[in-house]
Each structure stands twice: as C-alpha cells, then as structure tokens.
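hey m, so remember when u said the tokens were messed up on ur end? i reran from scratch. heres the input so u can diff it against urs
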Amino acid sequence: MQVALRDVHDSDLPVFFRQLNDPEALHMAAFTPRDPADWDAFEARWKQQRSSADVVARTVLVDGDVVGNAAVYGEPGEREVTYWIDRTHWGRGIATAALGALLAEVQERPLYARAAADNEGSLRVLTKCGFRASARATGYANARGEEIDEVVLTLDA
C-alpha cells in the first residue's frame, strides 16, 4: 500500500464532500461544519483554504486513489493540523502515514491538534505522530448537537 500526498485538485472536492457526509465519520469527527450537506458552503470553504498562504492542504492518496485530505492551518504559533480519511480505509495506518508525511513537509513547531475525547482512533494517530495531550476542553460539536469533551494535543520541536 502506497500512501502519498499531493495538492488538492478540483476533482477531489466531490470525493471530500461525500466523505464529509458519512454519518458515522461525522459522529467521530464531531467538530464539523454546521451543515455538512451545504455544497455551496463546502466549496467556498475549500476555495478559501486553497487560496490562503496560511493553509497547506493536501489530498491523501492510497495507490493513486483519493481517500481523504490533510492540512495545516492557522496563525503562526497557533497552527493546527486536521485530516479526514474515508471510513472504508480506517484502521489501516493511512491517517498515520498521511499525517506523518504532512508533518515532514511542514517543519514549523509547535503544531496543535484537537480531537473528541472519545475518538480513540484519532487520538492514537496523533500520538503515533508525536503529539502529546496538553489540555482538555469542551466545545460544541455540530455533528452531535451538544457540548462534548475534547483533547488538545501539541507537537513540539
């Protein structure tokens, strides 16, 4: 299995949109757009991200097929990582490999990440990539319609 990153292409967006609207994946991610089924808002968000010098967004490929995306965004000193892998590919090490590749590309530190406290898979990926829990918080999770606990993680130099 070959995991690779590349720039986001327009043709990736419908794949990302389908992935974003998987109910089980939405529940696990928890902190999602208010209305993930709003294509116009989704497209506008990706257009802004792709044109921003402050965002490094990549498509995740496995053996040449689009399986998700990974990105670094935010202000210097407060930059965060995010990633989304199609649920049909969970548990195969793809998120860990993709995030590792992104971290090799984006050398600045510290970097931060956030995950729902009950999202054991994502917490495991982040820990394998060197992130360490640095705080706990609560936040409104659109995908769950309630406040939930989250873990804030830090990757230092």
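this time it looks ok to me. The mean pLDDT is 97. if urs says something different then somethings off w ur setup not the seq
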